[in-house]
Structures are given as structure tokens and as C-alpha cells.
Amino acid sequence: xxxxxxxxxxxxxxxxxxxxxxxxxxxxxxxxxxxxxxxxxxxxxxxxxxxxxxxxxxxxxxxxxxxxxxxxxxxxxxxxxxxxxxxxxxxxxxxxxxxxxxxxxxxxxxxxxxxxxxxxxxxxxxxxxxxxxxxxxxxxxxxxxxxxxxxxxxxxxxxxxxxxxxxxxxxxxxxxxxxxxxxxxxxxxxxxxxxxxxxxxxxxxxxxxxxxxxxxxxxxxxxxxxxxxxxxxxxxxxxxxxxxxxxxxxxxxxxxxxxxxxxxxxxxxxxxxxxxxxxxxxxxxxxxxxxxxxxxxxx
Amino acid sequence: xxxxxxxxxxxxxxxxxxxxxxxxxxxxxxxxxxxxxxxxxxxxxxxxxxxxxxxxxxxxxxxxxxxxxxxxxxxxxxxxxxxxxxxxxxxxxxxxxxxxxxxxxxxxxxxxxxxxxxxxxxxxxxxxxxxxxxxxxxxxxxxxxxxxxxxxxxxxxxxxxxxxxxxxxxxxxxxxxxxxxxxxxxxxxxxxxxxxxxxxxxxxxxxxxxxxxxxxxxxxxxxxxxxxxxxxxxxxxxxxxxxxxxxxxxxxxxxxxxxxxxxxxxxxxxxxxxxxxxxxxxxxxxxxxxxxxxxxxxxxxxxxxxxxxxxxxxxxxxxxxxxxxxxxxxxxxxxxxxxxxxxxxxxxxxxxxxxxxx
Lengths: 299, 358
Description:
heterodimer; A: mainly alpha; 2 domains; 13 helices; B: two-stranded antiparallel sheet; 14 helices; globular
């Protein structure tokens, strides 16, 4: 076995995993604060990326397009809270989950109705090419863009950590995540908090959408990429931001390594399901994920 | 005035327990069945039979299967399309590889194979529930499609996994016309719906509901949780498998694995949410709605174009369809979580008292 090649595969997988983590972060945020498993996160990623790229193609400036898209995502988050979540308060989680499946369809239809369904390329000025000095010195190909994505993910997590630890709203969010009723009792407005969480999730979706858009182009298939975030969550635990990052790394790495070394034995293309099987096996050992809250919950 | 139980006395337990305790209901269902068997094949043209009624029946069967699992036993599944795919492809293989295989036997084999797959992917349900389980069934969805695409044996080594269903022969008689295929579908769906209805009224069905409502309490009163859950997966997947086989044999004729994507799973899930979770009738109502609605939408866009000159492109129509479906799901979950079946129930209650509600 060629060590340099193995390292290249592993690094590629880890960095691809970071991209999954970006999507998974959005899930975690919403689950933490409201206990809703937001299946629509993938379509939010798609919606954000498509809005941004369509604005760019209409000749808008980068920053303006970014700001407008962000505003749209925030409005969307608030609207979702108002229209979908508020009437469904106190329903069983599975009902909310199905409601977000409905939301997925609404968002997919809406974004394609407004912006059309043709795929778009997206260019942010960071080329998706191997880093030269790495390939020359150690014969390891690592994409420049992957490193940029990892950097962005790190920045995002740091920003979220500061937001959750240091700001008033962030503390309120954590209080709500811990205990809805206690939060209400000390005067935290639950519905505002949920709007804010969905808006923040919209922001995370925008970042993830930009990264994935550069990598694969902005197209309908983005919504499927987002499904890959689900095994990441199973491994990392639904409530944990570090879990989302670590889970992403694990999924990305095992998936790539399996595809390269195991794939040829069974005919290739196992990337489509391998992550799920890894997550399932993991669940059998540790049903709450790596950092999830341990609940005494007999099945 | 007409629709009430006054004067219909039950003198035995059997009468009290029958599926349709009201005489009016029995007459209505008999008329409906007679219409479906005798009149529809004669008056329905080819388009109606093969593009609307047959798929409606098949989707009803799939929705019935999912409703047993999700509605009655409370285990959310997103792998319906995978079970249907297993049914379709194994039925194809059964006919292909076993000489003299009767077609109904092939459908049953398809269903049994789907049941086996369902049990395997239902195993995680013993440890996890809720959305964890939904993700586990997603794994099933992707794995099965991959396997069908990769394992050439399953599709008889055809290019890109496309299979062409063999002709349907029963006792040497070939069912070729849409009307004949429709009748075969109707027969199978009717028998299986009756079986499902009775199963859900039996000890098994009550065990499912107990597990759904509170599994700890169910195990305390002595219901074996593991057996019940796996049985729910097996029965549900069997129904979906047979639906898949019918999908290939009486509806599409030529199927590729891509016919069974996650999208189809969602469609079936939408059917039971709109139709009514935990209701046999709901599966039929939901399937009817989801099958007919896109056609209605397409037609109405044509009418709009003809009447007002508003031209809506095909892509736009399909996007509007997505939005309306999604919106309806949310609407039903908020306003009427038990779906169309519950509305029907309310209508019946109203009808009993009509026209003197006091």
C-alpha cells in the first residue's frame, strides 16, 4: 500500500467531511434549540445557494448579493417559525419531522419556480486545484479549495461558539435548548428565540450552500448531498456542534477510504450508502452518538 | 335521514364486530365494488384505466403497507420505494428463473423477499426510534437501489438495470389489455385491503397500536416488542413488495431502478399523511389524491392557457405541484392530523344526525 496515496485519500476524505459538517451544523442548531429535526435543511442550503448565484448572474456585486441572500434567509427562517412551527407546538416530534419534509418540497419547488432549474456554476475566487508545494514535496494532492472550506468551517464554529457563549441571545438560546419551560419561566420569549435559531440556521445554510456550490455547481443534486449530513448527525449526536464536526470528519474519511479500497471489490459506487451503514453500526453500539445527550429511553 | 343505524339490531357478536356494521355502508361498498368490477372496465378508456385507475390502486396498496408500519405500529419509514423495488425485481426474477412459475406466486415471492429485506432493515428499530429510525430506513433506500444497479443477476444483466416485465399469464390465459390488467390489480388490492383491515382488528393489529402508543406499557402487559416491531416491518414490506411487483407488471411494463427513488418513498408517505395516518380508508383516499392531483393541475394549466392565454411551462407546473404538495402536508399536519379519512368520519357523523341535529 502506497502511504502517500493513502494519506491523500484520507486527507481528501477528511476535508470532504468538513463539507458535510457544514450542512450538519444547521441541523444541530435547530435541534438543540427547538427539538425539531429539520429535514428541510438541505433544501435551505439549495435555496440559499440558488438565490445567491442567481443574483450574482444578474450582475449584482458579491457583497450585495451576499447581504440580500442573508436577508432572504433570515426572513425565511422567521416565516417558517411563524407559519409552520408555531401552530405545531407541543405536537410529537415525528409530526414536526414530517412537517419539515413538507417544507422541503415547498422550498425546492419555490426556489426552482423563482430561479429556474438549470444548474449554475459558482466561482468565489478560490480555485479548486491541488496545492503545488504539497504535491511537489510529498506527492500528496490536496485541493486548495478544500483547505479554504475547512478554514471557513472552523471560522463558523468559532463564531457560533462565541455567539452562544458570550452574547445575550446566545445564552438565551442555550437556556431554551436546556429546558423550554424553565426558559419561559425566567422570561425568555420562546417564539423569538426560535425565529432567531431558524435565521441562524439559514445563515449556516448559506455558507454551506456557497461551499457546495463551488464544489459541485448549484443544482438540484445539492439537496441529496444534504442527506449525507444525516449519518454525520447520527454519529456526532443530534445536540452537539463538536459532534457535527467530528462526525463529518469520520464519515468523510471512512467513506473515501472505503470507496477507494473496498469499492473495487464490490463494483464501486458504494459512496451512496456506505455512510449510512457506518452510522447504523455505530448506532447499535452507541445510540446517542458521540456527544449526544444520554437519555434513558427504553425501546 | 337515510344514513343511520336505527332499526338495525345486532343479535350476535359476529354481527356486532363486522367491518361495516351499517347496512347502508355494506350496500355502498357492494355498489362501489360492482361498479369497479363490471362497469369501469367497459366505460373506462385505455388512458383512464392504465394511467389513472391502475396506478391509483397500486399506490393504495403501497400506502396501505406504509400505513401498517407508520400509522399502526408507529415506525416511520422512508424506505417504501426500496421495498417496492425489491418486490418488482424479485418477482421478475422468479418468473424468469423458475420455469412454470405462476404469476401470483411470483408476486408473492416478490412480496416475501421485500418482507425479508424489511426485517433486516427493521432490526435497528429495536434499539432506536423516531428520526433515528427514519435515517436507518434511508440507508435501506440507498443500499437497495445501489444493489439493484450493481448486481447484474437481479436485472438479468441488462444495461443500466432496466427490466421488462414478462407477459402476465394465469392458467394459460394472457392478460394483455389495460382492462384485464386493471381487473387483476383490483382483485389483488381488494383482497389485500380486506386482509389488512382484518389484521388490524385482530390481536396483531392491537399489539401494533399498543407499541405505537407507548412501548413500555405494551411490554408491561406482555406484548413482545421485538417480535411485534419486526412483524410490522415484515407485513408492511410484504404489501409494499407486492405493490412494487404490480407497479412493474400491470402499470409500467418496463422498469428501471431509478423508478424507485427516494421521491417515490416521499410520495407514499404524503399519501398516508394526507389520507390519514392509521386508517385503511386513508391509504386509498391519499393515493387517489396524490395520483389525481398532478393530472388535475396539468389540465388546469392547459385550461388557463386556453381561456386566458396564461402560459405556464411544464417545469413551472411541476414546481407548483411540489409547493402545493408540501404546503398541503404542512396544512394537514396542522389542521387535520388524521387526514381525509378523519374528514370522512366527521361527514358520516354529521350525516347520521342530518337533518335534525338535536
